[in-house]
Every structure is written in structure tokens, then in C-alpha cells.
Amino acid sequence: MGMTELFDDAAPKDVPTVTLRRPDDWHVHLRDGAMLRAVAPFTAAQFARGIIMPNLVPPVTTVAAAAAYRERILAAMPAGADFTPLMTCYLTDATDPDEIEKGFAEKVWVAAKLYPAGATTNSHGGVRDLVALAPVLERMERIGMPALIHGESTDPSVDIFDREAVFMEQSLLPLLKRHEGLKVTIEHVTTAETVEIVRAHAPRVAGTVTPHHLVLNRTSLFQGGLRPHYYCLPVAKRERHRLALRAAVTSGDACFFIGTDTAPHLRNAKEAACGCAGVFVGATALQTYAQVFDEENALDRFEAFASLNGAAFHGLAPNAGTITLVRRPGRALAAVPVEDDEVVVFRGEEPLPWSIAG
Ligand code: DOR
Ligand code: ZN
């Protein structure tokens, strides 16, 4: 079930294990077509539900497109998989509040994704004017539909390592003031300052943290040479930020939960003169989170972060069933074939101290 190979079958009796309610991934890119079929089984092997990102080409902006995409995802699931895709709407300057409300009322989508236009992959059609988005955000506030925000400045003159901080100060804090009842997830938090902003606005604001931002810092991107498979947006920050993220997720605070941001791209598109942003962490997410909680002596808080906090924020019940992780070395596959190329797996082939037992 873990889709990882264990090094040895003779498990010593006293190996630490952790059993959790089945966890959810509140931020996942499953893509479409051949890529969707290749990566979907990995997310379904780890998570019971996932919030599916809408940044397809073209983006998912209508109720009909989201419903059709949900069907394609379900059709791509392996036999016997038990995975519920939770869909999102891609916000633009032209989003109609009535369409937002219709998709939410019909339970097609559970949230809307706000990409500042140009901030990241397939975001050029995103939102240019956050103030002008008020009628949409007011409607969402009224119906209790969360905004999932990619928090980075799109000003090209802002240093890339400062883009999250600048967005938070110049855009997010004013938005939270303008829309005092809006539920917001600040996605893939990467700085110590954003951690504090999430805490200061909880419980209506939450933050997700990826596995890779818990184990990489900005130096990792250049360790021994350029590491394109560690490049994602927001880019990993200094070590002090990584440590703050580890403290946040293991704090037990209800405002932090899983969002892996698993974002597969073909090897050819990553290992290129202008490589694209995104880390495929779908096959090694739980193993990596478990390792972090273990290293921080916080395995007793892992279930809250993985399986309870996100469901509570979204007003959903926790999942039935459990998953068990075990501190036995294993390793994931190096890459997932997709047509005539492949997707490199984050920490693939590396010895991983934690494995999924079933
Ligand atoms: O690194 C990233 N990749 N960050 C994003 O926000 C988007 C994602 C993608 O879709 O590839
Ligand atoms: Zn993402």
C-alpha cells in the first residue's frame, strides 16, 4: 500500500510506529491526461481526500469544468482506491460571484484558489486587482467558502526570497482587514513571519506547510550544484525559516495542516535552461512528514496536523480508517514514467527512515 520498497522484512519488535486517522492533502496538483493517470495513484495511496488545484490549461473557472475534471480524476484512480477529490475554482478578475455560489451550493467545489496573476505556474490568468475582487470575496465570506491564497508578490523588482513577505504586508494583511469574516488558507507557508500572521488570525485563517519546505532551505537548491528538482514556488527560504516551519507544524496548533503542493512536471521541463517550478512529493509526503515529527519528538502531534486540523477548518468530519507509518528504512522509486518522459520523485531512491506500513 505504501508503494515504497522496504529494505528488510524482518522488522524488529520495538520499531516505533504511528497510526493515524487517514490523512488529507489540502493542496495537490493532479494535472490532467497522461500525467494525471501517472501521479493519481500515489496521492490516493497516502491520502483519503485532496483539495485539487485548478491551474490546468485552461484553468478551471466554471462549475461545469470542475465537475468534468472531478470525473476525469475519479476515472484515473486505480481499482480499489478510496480517494475523494475536493475541487476548487480558479479566481480571475472576471469571476462571477453567482458562479462561485452555484458551485459551492451544488457541492462541486469547496474553495476558491487565488493566484496573483503571474505568481507561478499557469497563473497568468489569475487575479490582478485584489481590491476589485471584493464582490467575489464578499460572497465567499457570506456563504463560508474559503479562499486558498498563493501568497507571493508579482512585482518583478521584488527579490524572489522576499516575495512572500512583501505579499503578506502589502496585500494579504489589507485583504484580511477588508474581509474580516473571510476564511483564508495561506498556502505553502515558507517564512517565520507568515507563521505568526497565520497564528494571529486563527481560527478563520489557516496555513499549510509542504514536506519539502520542512527539509530544504535555500542553500539546498545549490548543494553541490543546481538542483532543479528542489525548485518550487514559493522558493525555499533561509534555515531560520525552515526551523520556524518545523516548530509550527509540530506545535499542535489547529491552524496548521498538510498541503503537500505535490506539483509534477516532466523531467525535460525541470532540467531545462528555464526549468519550471514544482516538486513531485506525492510519493514521499507522509514518510517525510513522519520523519520531521519524529526528529522533533512530536509524533503524538502528527495526527492533528495530518488528519484533524484541516478537516475541522473545512467543516468536514475526519476520515474513517487509519494508516500506519513505521520507522523502518524504505525507499521510493526514482521516477514515474509518463509517456516518453518521466517525473522525478522527491527523495526518490534515497533511504527514507520512515515507511508506510498499511
Ligand atoms: O512550485 C509550484 N508549482 N508552485 C506553485 O504555486 C504551482 C506549482 C505548479 O503548478 O507546478
Ligand atoms: Zn500549488
UniProtKB/TrEMBL annotation:
Binding of Zn(2+) 2 occurs at 113, 150, 188
Q: Which GO terms of the molecular function aspect are on file?
A: dihydroorotase activity; zinc ion binding
- Keyword Lipid biosynthesis listed? The answer is no
Native source organism of the sequence: Methylopila turkensis
List the cofactors: Zn(2+)
Output this protein's name. Answer: Dihydroorotase
Q: Which reaction does it catalyse?
A: (S)-dihydroorotate + H2O = N-carbamoyl-L-aspartate + H(+)
E.C. no: 3.5.2.3
Q: Where is the Amidohydrolase-related domain?
A: 25-324
Q: Which residues bind Zn(2+) 1?
A: 27, 29, 113, 261
Q: Give residues where N6-carboxylysine occurs.
A: 113
Sorted alphabetically, the keyword list is: Hydrolase, Metal-binding, Pyrimidine biosynthesis, Zinc
- Quote the gene name from the UniProt entry: pyrC_1
PROSITE patterns to which the protein is assigned, alphabetical: DIHYDROOROTASE_1 (PS00482), DIHYDROOROTASE_2 (PS00483)
| One of the record's GO cellular component terms | cytosol
The active site annotation covers 261
Subunit details = Homodimer.
Family of the protein in this entry: Belongs to the metallo-dependent hydrolases superfamily. DHOase family. Class II DHOase subfamily.
